[in-house]
Write a structure and sequence with these properties.
This protein has helices at about 1-20, 25-30, 35, 40-55, 90-100, 110-120, 150-155, 230-240, 255-260, 285-290, 300-315; strands spanning about 25, 65, 70-75, 160-165, 175-185, 190-195, 200-205, 210-215, 245-250, 265-270, 275-280, 295-300. By secondary structure, the protein is α+β, with helices and mostly antiparallel strands.
Length: about 325
């Protein structure tokens, strides 16, 4: 069935591109064998309208012209369906080659390679190999999470999704209903930004914490999609990297090296403890929990309370 439809679309496109005058439905039906085999006029009309819409969706510009007798005809002018010449210099070709290499570990590798082949056919310089130029530079965006492809398609098609998500401090995953907006890679990890229907707010999800399959839901979006989705800024904020104040942390000597790397000041307290001054932003409480009894919050009081609440939740399981 797929082959038959592809052949029918190709024949229709050739008829519309090959004519110098508009062709009526009757003429097109007589010229294409698949249309001659249509059982009735209604069946042919439905088939033709679907094919015409499919060709337009593929990018073919089809004009509708009405003659003096009121009969409607169709044609695709060559000048309206011809792309301008593509000229790329060596640096532009190298940039395209590097962009294609980025996706070599994902299922987008085939599409990237196919796009380069089309550019080659359309005018990419024959003496330039985009895969070899600047070979010392090997950019890669690893995509190991099974959730990446269904979420990418859901973002493209504006389809809500459902998945099970395990928070960093939670013992068990929770079901989340999300309207996906955008995917972005930040420091080697992929994140999804979208509207969390259950919480009625924007949320960012790390793909490596999605468990099980991503399921699509046919209903449309209920919240407006922002013009700009700042995934990296949001993740950095919740990771405590955007801070407007400081926190005092008592840290056991010889432990918590990631905390020490962020400290703006360190003072030895004695008895095996140090005092660290750490930039305080969103998400610092979740990070401090990971160090368990080796880290104690001295101030501010609200940060100390948040850490205690998280530790109690972990203890309860």
């Amino acid at each position: 069935m797929a082959i038959a439809k592809a052949e029918r679309l190709m024949n229709l496109a050739l008829c519309l591109l090959g004519t110098r005058r508009p062709l009526s439905k009757r003429e097109l039906r007589e010229s294409i064998e698949a249309y001659l085999e249509a059982g009735s006029d209604d069946s042919f009309n439905r088939m033709f309208e679907r094919d015409k819409d499919d060709l337009r969706e593929l990018g073919l510009v089809i004009e509708t012209v009405e003659n003096l007798d009121g009969e409607v005809g169709y044609l695709a002018r060559r000048d309206s369906n011809r792309l301008p010449p593509i000229t790329l210099d060596a640096e532009e070709a190298a940039a395209l080659g590097l962009a294609a290499k980025v996706w070599q570990q994902a299922r987008l590798a085939g599409a990237a390679s196919g796009a380069l082949q089309k550019l080659r056919a359309a005018g990419l310089p024959e003496d330039v190999d985009p895969y070899e130029a600047h070979g010392a530079l090997e950019p890669r965006i690893p995509v190991h999470e099974a959730a990446f492809e269904p979420l990418m398609l859901a973002c493209r098609d504006r389809r809500p999704v459902v998945f099970d998500y395990r928070k960093a401090t939670a013992a068990h995953p929770e079901t989340r209903h999300v309207e996906p907006w955008a995917l972005e890679c930040w420091r080697g990890h992929w994140y999804l930004a979208g509207w969390d229907r259950d919480r009625g707010a924007e949320r960012v999800f790390r793909l490596s914490r999605i468990t099980g399959k991503v399921r699509s839901r046919g209903t449309g979006f209920t919240a407006p999609v922002p013009d700009a989705v700042t995934v990296r800024e949001t993740v950095a904020s919740w990771a405590g990297e955007i801070a407007d104040r400081s926190a005092l942390i008592r840290l056991r000597s010889g432990s918590g090296y990631p905390l020490r790397a962020k400290a703006t000041a360190v003072r030895e307290l004695g008895d095996g403890w140090d005092e660290l001054e750490i930039p305080y932003g969103h998400g610092l409480d979740a990070w401090l929990v990971e160090f368990g009894p080796d880290a104690v919050v001295l101030e501010p009081a609200e940060l100390r309370a948040d850490v205690v609440d998280r530790l109690r939740a972990v203890a309860k399981g």
